[in-house]
Amino acid sequence: VSIMFYKIEINQQLSAPERWYLALLGFAEHFRTSSPPKIRLCVHCLQAVFQFKPPQRIEARTHLQLGSVLYHHTKNSELARSHLEKAWFISQQVPQFEDVKFEAASILSELFCQQNLVDSAKPLLRKAIQISQQTPYWHCRLLFQLAQLHTLEKDLVSACDLLGVGAEYARVVGSEYTRALFLLSKGMLLLMERKLGEVHPLLTLCGTIVENWQGNPIQKESLRVFFLVLQVTHYLDAGQVKSVKPCLKQLQQCIQTISTLHDDEILPSNPADLFHWLPKEHMCVLVYLVTVMHSMQAGYLEKAQKYTDKALMQLEKLKMLDCSPILSTFQVILLEHIIMCRLVTGHKATALQEISQVCQLCQQSPRLFTNHAAQLHTLLGLYCISVNCMDNAEAQFTTALRLTTHQELWTYIVTNLASVYIREGNRHQELYSLLERINPDHNFPVSSHCLRAAAFYIRGLLSFFQGRYNEAKRFLRETLKMSNAEDLNRLTACSLVLLGHIFYVLGNHRESNNMVVPAMQLASKIPDMSVQLWSSALLKDVNKALGNTMDAHEAAQMHQNFSQQLLQDHIAACSLPEHNLISWTDGPPPVQIQAQNGPTTSLASLL
Q1: pLDDT tens digits for 13-41?
Q2: Is the peptide bond before 123 cis (omega within 30 degrees of 0)?
Q3: Is the CB of residue 356 less than 8 Å from the CB of residue 582?
């Protein structure tokens, strides 16, 4: 906050002998905005104000300015806290001094949270909320702040209650815009809690409010983006990749509209409307992000790569000017998705380097690591599978399960751990215990269409390895039915090639060919290197059995090419020092990763 922001107001209140205050304030602001900022001199100028025994208004405001400068520009948090506490105490004794009073409370509570003194921040915010009801802007802002604090503590019930209070208050003071912000924020938390019965009517109400609200075009479009992001992520959480397309298209059109609008300098007439959900640039990155999430689930991996590149480029530009924590969160989620793409497309070495990049980002932020540790170990588990390190994969997935409380992620991890046990072939007790918990026919733990389809595939894979081919076909046909319904291309390709393998084993070569050819086409479109490798090997054998010598030779050549590409990438990945991350299963990410002598794993299982 600019120290000179209040200059006009103060100038009107000061008598001539107090002009010294403006002079000191001017010097302080000059030093604060110098390049580079001269914070020590700025602080000296502000501290000099107290030598003149100023009146309470100036004293309180100067304590606020000192506290704010020290909090934002130095590591002297104790001195910042002392000044902010004095500003909060003195300002409560001065009538009609809301801006200083509530800003002091807001910054002081932020500082308490930074010092892990959440129990000091909560009562401070509650008191500020209680006495701010006649000041709509600050009342709404403080409600948002306390709701965010509860959210960070995973107390989503209290956060939702506060957002509900805020929505009703905004309605009473005639701010439909801020009412929508409160309701959409509550909808976001209800989605996180999986309270879908409450989400649907709330989103319906939000849609009506957003469409009916007539105000600043950018604010209106930003509400629509918020609303559509919630709808899209709701569909994607449910694994409904095809059903989400109309909403995603609306969202992409909406962000294009926002990018053509100019920021309106006219402030809203209602002080309760003085909020923005996200800056335009952040919204743009967020839309790229949900597009990447959709492309990844649908199996359009080249499209996912294209939008990831765009989003990361935008993020790098933004991070030069903006240190907002949400940008690092966006970056980590983008990297998590592109890492999965790399593992599918046969770029394990690049995926491993990007996993290391996520580790580095998490080292810089304990909160980021807390929120993404389970995902990080899951990614390492997927990498371990890709390089045939099954013991390490099991350790990584077990660690991830211990760290997550998110039901969808838990189900995803269990599904992949089950595939590890199937490949190992000697973990029957553990495998059956897992499969019982993700039974797609009975009490499946989540509502995700995609994860349930994957659970049918895992059952089909196990039945195939056990030689129970009719049972395997039943499970795989169920997977195909579900994956075709929602355009889940990777599951479709995997199911087709496994069905083709079953028909080949049963001697039905014509039917096997009918399965493997479309599997190969789909795998090439994705592109999925492992399915291409598997399909080409099967096509070679099928065509040989059918007497198609030329086709068999062509398939053999394709198989050889895929094998070479995978082998080279396998060796490159295992030779990287980052490969040692597969042994990390406890505590924060290792700071330094030691190099090793070379690959210690075999590609035989892939060939």
Answers
A1: 545 447 788 888 888 888 888 888 899 99
A2: no
A3: no
Measured CA to CA, the distance from residue 525 to residue 302 in angstroms comes to 9
Confidence at residue 589, expressed as pLDDT on a 0 to 100 scale: 87
In the DSSP assignment, the letter for residue 107 is H
Nearest Cα to Cα of residue 249 among 213, 210, 290:
290
What is each CA distance from 425 to 47, 401, 421, 429, 495, in whole angstroms?
Answer: 73, 22, 6, 11, 20
For the record, the structure tokens of 356 come out as: 């290391």
CATH says 1-115 is which class? mainly alpha
AA identity, residue 136: P
User: In the structure encoding, which two tokens stand for residue 246, read together?
Assistant: 């109309």
Q: What is the mean pLDDT of residues 72-86?
A: 93
Q: Which helix (H) or strand (E) holds 203?
A: helix 196-212
Q: Which amino acid is at 309?
A: D
DSSP string, 400-458: HHHH---HHHHHHHHHHHHHHHHHHS--HHHHHHHHHHT-TTS--SS--HHHHHHHHHH
Block residue for tokens 């389809």: 453
| pLDDT given for residue 264 in this prediction | 62
* Orientation angle between helical segments 98-114 and 136-152, nearest 10 degrees: 10
Calpha distance 142→135 (Å, rounded):
11
Q: Which residue is listed with tokens 């490949």?
A: 423
SS3 category, 8? helix
Buried b (16+ CB within 10 A) or exposed e, 292-315: bbbbbbbbbbebbbebbeebbebb
Q: Which pLDDT does position 607 carry in this prediction?
A: 36
Name every residue whose Cβ is closer than 8 Å to that of residue 263 and which is 6 or more positions away in sequence: 218, 280
Q: Please work out, in degrees rounded to the nearest 5, the angle formed at the alpha carbon of residue 216 by the alpha carbons of 214 and 218.
A: 120
Instruction: Single out the residue of 452, 457, 526 nearest to residue 491, CA to CA.
Output: 457
For the record, the structure tokens of 345 come out as 């497309």
User: What pLDDT score was predicted for residue 10?
Assistant: 46
At 104, the amino acid letter reads A
Cβ–Cβ under 8 Å, residues 83 and 70: yes
527 preceded by cis ω (within 30°)? yes
448-487 burial: b if 16+ Cβ within 10 Å, else e: bbbbbbbbbbbbbbbbbeeeebeebbebbebbbebbeebb
Distance CA 166, CA 178 (A): 8
Residue whose structure tokens are 């996180």: 192
Mean pLDDT of the chain: 90
Q: What's the pLDDT tens digit per position in 332-381?
A: 999 999 999 999 999 999 999 999 999 999 998 888 999 999 999 999 99
